[in-house]
Amino acid sequence: MPLDGSWLLRRRVAELDATPPASPGPDDPRLRHFLSVMQLHTDTRIEAEVGGPAIVGAAQADEIIGTCRLLADIRRNHPALVDGPLRRDEQTWIGTSRQVPELAAHRFVAARDRKSEPPSTKPFGLGLYTSTAVSGGRSMWRAYLDNYHGSWLYPLPWYTWRLLATPDARVLEVTRARDWVAFLEAYPRVVERLVFPDWAAVAADLDGIHLTLPAVAAIQGFNLPSAHGLTAAAFWDLETTLWLRWCFSEPELSDVTR
To answer: Vertex 39, ends 138 and 124: CA angle to 5°?
Structure first.
């Protein structure tokens, strides 16, 4: 039975606002702390703690996340990660040895070419995911990978590519839970009473969708009421842009971690 998850979201904010442990390394410790907290909020943990799917209204979720001091602090230093708009000149993609290390347009799988893709709030069979480079030219995705240095999950080497998105690329900014719900209401794909994005339909209108940190914190793991029913739980973890079309100039290999 779906249960009220607002208490869980309030606890999430408390965890985000707790004093972060010492975090050596080149990345902003505030961003690393956000990552470490959000990585704990998995589907299995949420279901175990709530006793089933967790529901929270979008407006209430935004109100709760709006009290987060950590996000306010990150906003002062990295406003694009919190409020947008997307920094089109600071996008990075990282390939691991499980992936093709070369990043090129001919390897890109457009959403329109995968209309039979299984329902997902974050598809992995199409498009391209980037994260914004900040201090030191490193993105949150690069900081995330450091937690798996030497593991089999993301084996070395890691190839970091810098991309410049074209100025005419149509990118939807999702900066809060209400934006996510409005997005799903505009492009619904209802499967077993849960609302997913219809990515093929999205690609007819948009080139990409940018999720900022408040949106990630507000929606991760929750089912939100919408005009078409409850949204499927989403797990984005960090600031991310999903590109549904190739919208870049020639990528540049900027770093190799071995």
So the answer is: 75
C-alpha dist (Å) from residue 168 to 206, 212, 222, 248: 11, 20, 33, 10
pLDDT confidence of 20, banded at 50, 70, 90?
confident
**Are the CB atoms for 222 and 194 separated by under 8 Å?**
no
Read off the pLDDT of each residue in 168-177 and give the average, rounded to a whole number: 98
State pLDDT tens for residues 66-94: 999 999 999 999 999 999 999 999 999 99
Q: Please state, in angstroms and as integers, the Cα–Cα distance from residue 130 to each residue in 79, 92, 186, 247, following that order.
A: 17, 5, 23, 12
Alpha-carbon torsion 58, 78, 91, 169, what sign? positive
- Sheet strand arrangement including 3-4: 3-4, 54-55, 222-223
Q: How far apart are CA 121 and CA 231, in angstroms?
A: 9
**pLDDT tens-digit series, residues 53-67:** 899 999 999 999 999
Start-end of H helices in 165-226: 177-186, 199-205, 213-219
Q: Does residue 111 have a pLDDT over 90?
A: no
User: What would the mean pLDDT of 236-246 be, rounded to a whole number?
Assistant: 96
Cβ proximity of 225 and 252 under 8 Å: no
- For 244-254, the pLDDT digits (tens) are 999 999 899 99
Burial string for 133-161 (b: 16+ CB within 10 Å, else e) reads bbeeebbbbbbbbbeeeeeeebeeebbbb
Cis preceding-peptide flag for 85 (omega within 30 of 0): yes
Phi, psi of 229 (to 5 degrees): 120, -170
Query: Which amino acid is residue 95, in one-letter code?
Result: G
